[in-house]
Amino acid sequence: MKEGPGPIQKASTRVSEALAPGAQLVVVGGWVRDHLLGRDAGDMDLATALMPEDVMKRAKAAGLKALPTGLQHGTVTVIANGHGFEITTFRGDGDYRDGRRPESVRLGVSLKEDLARRDFTINAMALPVEFLDGAETAGRIIDPFDGKSDLEKHLIRAVGDPMKRFAEDGLRPLRACRFASQLGFDIEEKTLTAIPKRLDISAKVSVERVFVELTKLLCGLDPKRGLQLLVDSGLLDLWMPEARPMIGCTQNRHHLFPVWEHTLETVAFAPPEPALRWAALLHDVGKPPTRTSDDASGVHFFGHEAVSLEITSALFARLKVGHAFTREVLALVRHHGTNPTADWSDAACRRFLGKLSEDGLTLEQWGRFRIADQLAKGYGEASNQLEHQNVMERMVRIIDAKPPLKAGALALDGTALMNLAGKRGGPWLGSLQKHLLDAVIEDPARNTPEKLKRLAMDWLEVSGS
To answer: What pTM does this model have?
Structure first.
């Protein structure tokens, strides 16, 4: 039995009825592509032959809310059944001079001309809204540039001349690599060849837009493909030159793969979440500058974690990445080299858990990243997974005992310690709390007011505070 139309289809049908007659309302872009691929299609962008003023007038007459969100580009947002639709009048673009947006737009062109300005053939298809509920929507697709054929071939191909498409928007080369990662597609040869020839245009793109595309690439279905395309096209050197030295950097006996290949494997093994995938990409970026070797013990990367932190911090600052996200990725990088073993004491485990908590990481986050890094070493999955499972189960048991891992969990709070010392707070208070926390992490039984009071008095006497 065929499923009935979903909420977004019902909402779009309501919009179509409100704008009729003569609207030629069509769904365009990514929704059509993903619908044909059987993927979750997400938001739906619409295009119409109507001018923006007519769209607003007809929508409001039908009782729908209409907002002039981009009139200079022919775009109106119409809200129906709780769904917002960006509706853009069929348009042609004028000259591009800043590598991002056209100097002018021409409204009222044909649908084919509208589709001709789009980036790739798989994004240059349209579906009339009145056919959304039909059983054979694929047969109703308007496809002047053979996007359906390229979907079947798993191919990303520029609409028309790729040199022209990439001159219009410098982000498009990176989007090609991103789609290759998200869809597992190849980039058509002529399209791929054009990318390094337009790096000067790509260099004009804002770093905020670049970071969004890189994140989508990293979280794609085949991130190894996307990252290798960045290397081959020159986009890696343009946006993340810090990663280049990892290519060709050999490792020691603990890794089957060189640094770059290990990095690609780690990214692929990591869950497709932004922080985990970025940490996977950058966790060993400090290895090339710290690489040493000798005949006696082979290759070493002493202190590479600290250097990886420095490089990641500088890269994220240049890409203007937000503070919270940066902190999460840095925490994963900072702790990726920690590998608890069976001979660790419970106190050592508690100290490690306390450091994770201090950095805002959960055990689950660290664990998901650790197993990805372990599996990417290339020496088989079974032994790694069993060892990792044992580590995680032990850590969970320790957490379940609810040991104090933060100063806020101490049985004496800051006010009580100030009263005990008979003075106001200051640097001494933080030092005392750290001393007490170290003591109770070593032995949680010490976390009582009486025992902490004795420990605090001893510390105050010895320190002279």
So the answer is: 0.90
Are 25 and 71 members of one domain? yes
The answer to whether position 388 is within a domain reads yes
Residue 2 lies in a domain: no
Range of the domain at 131: 7-153
Number of H helices, E strands in the chain: 23, 12
pLDDT in tens, 21-68: 999 999 999 999 999 998 887 789 999 999 999 999 999 999 999 999
Q: Which of 261, 211, 208, 262 is closest to 377 using CA atoms? A: 262
State pLDDT tens for residues 132-147: 876 567 679 999 999 9
Among 433, 364, 374, residue whose Cα is nearest residue 399: 364
Do 56 and 135 belong to one domain?
yes
Looking at 135, 153, 171, which one is the last position of a domain? Answer: 153
Q: Which helix (H) or strand (E) holds 28?
A: strand 26-28
Same domain, 235 and 257: no
Q: What are phi and psi of 380, to 5 degrees?
A: 100, 150
State the Rg of the chain over Cα. Answer: 29
User: Of 135 and 352, which is predicted with more confidence?
Assistant: 352
User: In terms of DSSP bridges, do strands 91-93 and 105-107 run parallel, antiparallel, or are they unpaired?
Assistant: antiparallel
Residue 177's nearest CA partner among 139, 210, 140 is 210
Closest by Cα among 236, 93, 106, 235 to 168:
93
- The DSSP code sequence of 76-114 is EEEEETTEEEEEEE-EEE--B-SSSSBS-EEES--HHHH
**The last residue of a domain, from among 195, 212, 239:** 239
